[in-house]
Amino acid sequence: MATAETERAPVSAPPVPTRSFALNCLLFLAVLVILKLAKPLMVTLALSLFFYFLLMPLVLFLGKFHIPRALAAGAVVALVLMLLSHGILAYLTSVLISTAVIVFLTFFFLTFGERLQQKIARLGRSFAEQRRLVRIARNIQSEISRFLGVISAINLCLAAIASFIFWFLGVPNFLLWGALAGIANFVPYAGAAAMTVMLTAVGLLTFDTLGDALLVPGCFLVLTILEGQLITPMLIGRQLNLSPVIVLFAVIFWAYMWGLAGALVAVPILVSTKIVFSHMPAFRPLASLFRR
């Protein structure tokens, strides 16, 4: 007579949820299509958030002097517009509406950003989930604000040093090229590569000998290597701990999606994604892929 153990049928493995996987893939593709088709709206929103994270520490600093949040946000936005009015904005007559929307959204985020975070936290179904949402939002704000603040200081110093080098080498419009070098460095890898190509052309058109011409991009290349391999990793390398391959892929992907603005906000988007994934147990393996 067969025992119960021998008569028991073997337990089959649970079926693979192929339908759920297919639906998730379709959802992911749909999100990509929406991000591509809604490029004007998404670029405006992304740039507004970029300036929000960049200017928020200054608004918080003014708040220590008991200045109302709306007044501090308005003063910071007005100061930025005043500084830019003599330069870039003077040449943006064709995009004044987009510029005005970005300014308005930046002011809105600077004024009501904390209230918006609190309302997002209330979407949690439990107190623990609400605390996690608050923690994610605050980590994103602090990490990106610190990152953009350090990067802005580094690029400002790079622009000043590059301008001095260009002046010493005899490059015409050295202040303009120095400022462009600092701005281009906000885009990892691609910005420095593009500036090296442009400075090579400037050197060839300005100087008679090949050695003098190549000295211009050569000095800039040495400067960017020191900045990218020594100064920036020393100041924010441990904070971000991002893989260079992932950063380069993010810059290429968002540049394809949204153009130059996408390349500018690629690293903040990557940092935000890493923080969100690190707070979600199901996505922590993906967050580990972002690290060096």
Quick one: overall form?
globular
Taking Cα atoms only, what radius of gyration do you get, to the nearest Å?
24 Å
Overall helicity: over 70%
**Average pLDDT metric:** 77
Query: Helices and strands: which structural class?
Result: mainly alpha
Strand content bin = under 5%
Order of helices and strands: HHHHHHHHHHHHH
Q: Work out the helix count.
A: 13
Task: Calculate the terminal CA-CA distance, rounded to whole Å.
Answer: 62 Å
> What number of structural domains do the residues give?
2
**How would a crystallographer describe the biggest sheet?**
none
In the predicted model, the low-confidence regions spanning at least 5 consecutive residues are 1-7, 9-16, 88-94
Oligomeric grouping of the chains = single chain
- Tally the beta strands: 0
How is the topology of this model organized?
Elements: H1 4-7, H2 18-37, H3 39-63, H4 69-84, H5 96-121, H6 127-169, H7 174-184, H8 190-206, H9 210-240, H10 244-258, H11 260-264, H12 266-278, H13 284-289
Compose a concise summary of this entry.
This protein is mainly α and 292 residues long. It has 13 helices and no strands.
